[in-house]
Amino acid sequence: MSWVLGLGFLLWSCATAATGLMHGFVSLLIARLVLGMGESVAYPSYAKILAGDFSVRHRGIGNGAIAAGQLSGPAVGTFIGGILMARFGWRPFFIGLGLISLAWLVPWFRWRSPAPVPAGVNRTRPDSHIRAIVQQRSLWGACITHFCCNYLIYFLLTWLPYYLVRERHFSMDQMAQIGGAAFLFCAASSVVSGWVSDHWITEGPSASHLRKALLVAGLAGAGLSLMLCVVAAPKPAVVLLFVGSACYGICNPHLFAGAQTLAGPLAAGQWMGVQNFMGNLAGIVAPPLTGFLVGRTGHFFWPFGVVGAFALIGSLSWIFVVGPIEPVSWPSASQGSYGKTMA
Fold first, then answer.
1. How far apart are CA 3 and CA 84, in angstroms?
2. What is the reported pTM?
3. Among 51, 98, 230, 333, which is least packed, fewest CB within 10 Å?
4. Contact 146, 275 (CB under 8 A)
5. Pick from 185, 165, 166, 170: nearest CA to 74
6. Which residues touch 200 (CB under 8 Å, ≥6 apart)?
7. Nearest CA to 271 among 203, 215, 325, 231?
8. Average of per-residue pLDDT values in the chain
9. Is 271 exposed, middle or buried (CB count within 10 Å of its CB: 0-12, 13-18, 19+)?
10. Does residue 264 have a pLDDT over 80?
């Protein structure tokens, strides 16, 4: 898994640098597709590593830290990336970002040790073929929730700047500050949510109930805050945007910690590969659907309403479709049968 993540990151870095050298549409598209291929290894690899190296009582902070890194990227990109591109141009920025990122590979391969097999885990590889995984009802519930969570974040990533400038009439500098701060709230609350959940689990509450409650409260709170944001006055709307961002950060770590617990160390990579594929379909749906609704209505009321609706759907799926967040009983390959379907 160390090599998979490292090679994926190498591909991502090279494609990022190559983007700055492209001139035609086709070559630029190919570079971005290759970038996506490299990026696709990230969450299955994270899931495999955290499911193997971290106990249930420590996965909250592990996933919270990863979420903080993921969500800090847009914040830093908004604050610093815009300044650098304005000064040096977008091509040098992409080339520099890709080449500088390669430095991460040195400490990764130097200090990353092979993941130990956790105590109590059968060393015989379970029958975790994709057909066994897709039989799990909890997988499909997690996929629905993942799609809904991603719809919200893709909406903010692609349309928040336009909304703040065109509908709320903030300046470009104000937009950068507000948008960057929103993602920083996401990042900070992800770490806090992960740490608090691990602490509470250590004190005795059911990990399954706690992970479910925090995800539902965070996702529902984010959807409600963003729906109120679109009808509030400008200053309260900014406050609600920050509240919604913080709520999204609360739910984020538990989406992934739940998948790692359900799949277990030996099936976490495949499970997260399926879940991440389904969840990222939101990146195909959210930007054009928002553009269509804004084009037809001339404002953002309905786009924010759709975000709230998906937040509700994702919360209900996590409650009623995903079963108890407990390890699936995967049989060993020698048994020749597939895992039990979660009730």
1. 32
2. 0.84
3. 333
4. yes
5. 185
6. 210
7. 325
8. 86
9. buried
10. yes
